[in-house]
Amino acid sequence: MLRVRIYNTWDNVAKQSAEGERELTLCYTGEYRRNDVIEFSGLERARFYRITVDNAVGEALVYVRTDCIRYPVPFYEERESYDPRAFSGSRHYIRICLAERWETGGMRNLARNPFDRHEVEGVYPHASANVETRGEAVFAARNAIDGIVAVQGHGEWPYSSWGINRRADAEIRIDFGRAVDIREARLYTRADFPHDNWWTAACLCFSDGTEEALRMEKSLGAPHIFSGLDRRRVKWVLLRGLRQSSEPSPFPALTQIELIGEESEG
């Protein structure tokens, strides 16, 4: 039985809850408080779910390897990477559905997950990095897979991005939680010039031990597209070896990474 409840970590008392067999909706009527948590339980492991944690965040198709998800409601600085409407006010739409088979078939962006958070474990795709500029939410790894493509600015939503804090060895990893087939990669590099710099080269490393060298040019918003990758049954992708251009700005950044492919058979 699927269950959703909202509680505060101070007392663990449910403010509101709902349950259903394969899908459910919880319309929470109240303002969120600091330390509030949205908990999804009764999940089946190794299954796909469609989750909307807030209407302004949007729906995420995710692969789950846990029976319980605890999603801390973002507050203060954490909220700056979200639509200002998200988690605000006194009416909130939360929904979870067990995904149908047809929803997970075919080619799609396997990296997209607006539900992703540092604190949320066992839910994929998941982005992580060895650096995030000053530890700020607007430069977190999750911003690179939230589905928002706005490259002409930097900072608060919708211009949040993955920032590398001037690290020459910066790298970002996308975990899928299961085997997938990757056909194409698309990188949207931030283009808030002259504040920003850009990368001339990078490397995609795959869990099967193979690598793909990437060459990039300065872009004002169009994606850098790398097709014909044909990597089968990979469980993660790592973007590394980021080579900065000779322009004076020290601030290149990644707005979005899209990994186009499909579920592996067998």
Describe the structure.
With 266 residues, the protein is an all-beta fold. It has 1 helix and 18 strands. The chain has one helix at residues 101-104, and strands at 2-8, 14-20, 23-29, 36-41, 47-52, 59-64, 68-72, 91-98, 108-109, 123-124, 126-129, 162-163, 172-189, 199-206, 211-215, 224-226, 231-244, 253-263. Strands 9, 11, 12, 13, 14, 15, 16, 17 and 18 form a 9-stranded antiparallel sheet that branches. It has a 5-stranded antiparallel sheet with strand order 3-8-5-6-10, with no helix packed on it. It is globular, with a radius of gyration of 19 Å.
Main attributes of the structure:
single chain; 266 residues; nine-stranded antiparallel sheet; 45% strand
Write the layout of secondary structure elements.
Layout: E1 2-8, E2 14-20, E3 23-29, E4 36-41, E5 47-52, E6 59-64, E7 68-72, E8 91-98, H1 101-104, E9 108-109, E10 123-124, E11 126-129, E12 162-163, E13 172-189, E14 199-206, E15 211-215, E16 224-226, E17 231-244, E18 253-263
Antiparallel strand pairs: 1-2, 1-4, 3-8, 4-7, 5-6, 5-8, 6-10, 9-18, 11-13, 12-18, 13-16, 13-17, 13-18, 14-15, 14-17
